[in-house]
Amino acid sequence: MQRPRSLSLIRLEVPFLSLLCMQGMPSIAESALTTPSILAPASTPANEIYHLSLFVLAITGSIFIVVGGLLAFVIIKFHARKSDSEHEPAQIYGSTQVELAWTVIPVLIVVVLFLTTARTIFAIQDAPEPSSALDVTVIGHQFWWEFRYPKLGIVTANELHVPVSTQQRPEPTYLRLLSADVDHSFWVPQLGGKTDLIPNHPNQMWIDPQTAGLYLGQCAQFCGIEHAKMLLRVYVDTPDQFAAWVKNQQRQGVEDQAVTAGRRVFEHEACMNCHTITGTTATGTFGPDLTHLMSRATIAAGAAANTPGNLRAWIRDPNTLKPGALMPAMQLSDQETNEVVAYLTTLR
């Protein structure tokens, strides 16, 4: 499998800048989670970026200390005193040694930083894909994520499930990144660097999370009015958890006779034109696949918790939860809204 080699598409961030950029990141529905940070890498690519950032910080920090120290020394030692004579001190014009030093040393520093950065980028991009790897196609939409598992026949949205990868059982996840509309950028700080999703230009990245748990990320490229709420969640599952999740996602949509009225409304309104629920006549692809909607913790790409109350508010008017969302208000009666919500809550 060939992977794009563009250096500009994988962005390696300095720790302090990353922390500043991510201050508002956690989902409204998950305020208990700490802010994602590249300072706590949980994947090989993220670990490579972390160590590179420490190296860059050490060099730039040393430059700051040397320059700041010399400046302080000069200010203290040579500041004006009342006892100084009033005539101008001796003037020195030009110094070949000094000029060579402040030209050669910065050039060498830039070369070292360039080579170490290039080595890290190519080490990540050129890593061979093992036969045990999981392939996932990621499609960025305004303003949500679509995840397709081609070998498993699974389509889901906003919440990516991947298996934990260990030295004894390596199972990296290779992500093929596509965009359905405008530029997006996939970024989960603890798992890897930012990688762009560009229309008509497939891109790739890979992760191998080594600790099970939940990792938060978001679109890192301005993509429209609701860019800030285009969040994503990566669940790193143990082998048993991932196998159970796959088994559940491969099932057809639940058919509960108690919510037939809600299903009928869903299939006869515009809902079916945008959403898919397997086993029904709803086969739309403009919006997220809802076959297993209630297996997700959030709705609206992480903007709100997945509860009946929030589902009801979302169906009535998505702009109440996510101003600028492309889904229109459905103009359903209160009874129809309650019936659709009752139906959706059975889709696990």
What does this molecule look like?
- 33% of the residues lie in helices and 18% in strands.
- It has 348 residues and is an alpha+beta fold.
- The chain folds into two domains: 11-79 and 90-250, Sandwich (Immunoglobulin-like); 257-344, Cupredoxins -  blue copper proteins (Immunoglobulin-like).
- The strands form three sheets. Strands 1-8-7-10-11-5 form a six-stranded mixed β-sheet.
- Helix 2 (44-77) packs antiparallel against helix 3 (96-125), helix 5 packs across helix 8 and helix 7 (308-316) crosses helix 8 (334-344).
- The longest helix has 34 residues, at 44-77.
- The model is unreliable at 1-34 (pLDDT under 50).
**Based on the structure given, which CATH architecture of the largest domain is correct?**
Sandwich
Helix content: 25-40%
Poorly predicted ranges (pLDDT <50, ≥5 residues)? Answer: 1-34
Q: Number of folding domains?
A: 2
Largest sheet descriptor = 6 strands, mixed
Summary of the model, kept short:
The chain is of the alpha+beta class.
